[in-house]
Amino acid sequence: MFVISQIWLRLLGTVLFSAGLVFFACPFLAGIHHAGCIFGTVISVMGILFFALNPAVSGILQKIWENGFGHFVLCVLMGILGFGAMLGIVMSVFMIISANHKPKTENTIVILGCKVRDGEPSLMLQKRLDSALQYLKQHPDVPVIVCGGQGIDEKISEAQCMAEYLTAHGIDESRIYRDDTLASTLENMENAKKIITEQGWLPEITIVTDGYHQFRASNIAKSIGLSADAVSARTSWYLVPSYWVREWLGICYQFVFG
Coil, strand, or helix at residue 104? Predict the structure, then answer.
């Protein structure tokens, strides 16, 4: 019975990590490469190897465990894995809360940029723009700041692409302000704050980005003196795992290096 249970456990683990590998590898097929994809792919492959080769791996680990130094190393690794799992859960809770933090007042909209393909918004960027459009049409007096520079493989800047998309869908050009710099989220927020200050607006914004990104983006905004609400775009389901993991890494980096 115990042997059968072990076989089923190995099979379940192999299937789960194989599914993870599919999710984390999907973005590569769509031309998307980032730390979340790489990290998730590596962990998935390690998980598959562990469960698929369990008897051999267990034997190796047993020998390491019986060695004094090896025992210490494995204990440290298990501690790190346990801490990482708890940290991931805590970050996920805050990410979900931030993604659902709805605007309470009419604030300046700040749309964070994303990939532009052949002069047109990528699917992810289009979803952000469509979410912003809904808010802007409900609040016709609210201005909007579009943020994003031009990458080496982009025909136009993300800000220009967003501005053109918004005007094509009925938003008056006079409401749109551009930040065309190719910058990090922090620099985008700093540039947005400059525009807000120059225009004499209140330092209160509503950030439009994907839900997974809202927690880090709002923290960055608050760190430079902006109050932030959220309008979250939906992320395609097959991209959520890799971007979610990337966001974990981004939050940790922000916490350590500010």
Answer: coil
Distances (CA, A) of 215 to 66, 148, 203, 231, 232: 44, 19, 18, 12, 11
Among 155, 94, 88, 92, which residue's Cα sits nearest to residue 121?
Answer: 155
What is the rounded (10 degree) CA torsion for 50, 52, 53, 58? 50
Residues contacting 158, CB < 8 A, separation 6+: 113, 114, 115, 116, 125, 146, 147, 148, 149, 150
pLDDT tens digits, 70-124: 778 878 888 888 898 899 999 999 999 999 888 888 899 999 999 898 889 999 9
Q: Which domains does the chain have, with CATH numbers?
A: 2-99 (no CATH), 108-235+244-257 (3.40.50.620)
Detail the DSSP E strand segments found in the chain: 108-112, 116-117, 120-121, 144-147, 176-179, 204-210, 227-233
Q: What is the pTM of this model?
A: 0.85
The token pair that represents 256 in the structure block: 């350590």
